[in-house]
């Protein structure tokens, strides 16, 4: 188990062997003014939960899910900002960065690469499967660093490519895993980019979950 001050300065647990739903987005895909507004809204809602606690953990979890849903809807509908992953070459770089660690340090269950953000579902190997611990932050640092370097070479620049903060959620059970896998693969359908989940070029699902596709 590793404790990491990771998201909004909250203690964040990353157990080895855990399965995670992660979303990360391009830098500049959300205006700074919108990010600041969301930050203030989140802080107010969290303060209210702390001041009037009823089901503290459940309410915080719900707040996190609502905050994510707001962001994900914005990614799918906002036409401004950066949409570099429309590029076949850059989307392929991101896909390669995810597949690189599959069956080495992590088990890659699924991903969906959109024009300005990426959804992934991964399981970290536990202590019985690897010699050196490889935490979620290690995985995300690797895939972001590699893909940013390669994509910036195409763009002929050295600027920040990814938003530093990512959203991640520890998947609690198999039912939740199936719901999340469906959510990830359905993203381009929901965004009106294709008719069926299987039609999106930049989606992947581990073979044992093919029934979801």
Automatic annotation (TrEMBL):
It comes from the Bacteria. Residues 74-187 form the Transposase IS200-like domain. Pfam families: Y1_Tnp (PF01797). SMART domains: Y1_Tnp (SM01321). Signal peptide: none annotated. This is Transposase. It comes from Arcicella aquatica.
């Amino acid at each position: 188990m590793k404790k990491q001050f990771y998201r909004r300065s909250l203690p964040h647990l990353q157990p080895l062997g855990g399965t995670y739903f992660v979303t990360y987005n391009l830098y500049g895909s959300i205006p700074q003014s919108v990010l600041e507004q969301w930050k203030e809204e989140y802080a107010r809602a969290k303060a209210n939960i702390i001041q009037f606690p009823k089901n503290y953990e459940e309410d915080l979890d719900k707040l996190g899910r609502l905050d994510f849903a707001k962001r994900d809807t914005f990614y799918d509908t906002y036409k401004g900002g950066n949409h570099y992953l429309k590029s076949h070459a850059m989307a392929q770089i991101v896909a390669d960065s995810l597949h690189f660690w599959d069956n080495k340090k992590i088990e890659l269950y699924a991903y969906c690469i959109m024009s300005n953000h990426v959804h992934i579902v991964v399981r970290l190997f536990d202590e019985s499967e690897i010699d050196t611990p490889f935490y979620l932050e290690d995985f995300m640092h690797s895939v972001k660093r590699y893909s940013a370097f390669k994509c910036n070479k195409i763009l002929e620049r050295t600027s920040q490519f990814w938003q530093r903060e990512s959203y991640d959620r520890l998947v609690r059970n198999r039912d939740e895993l199936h719901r999340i896998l469906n959510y990830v693969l359905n993203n381009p359908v929901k965004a009106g980019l294709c008719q069926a989940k299987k039609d999106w070029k930049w989606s992947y699902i581990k073979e044992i979950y093919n029934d979801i596709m």
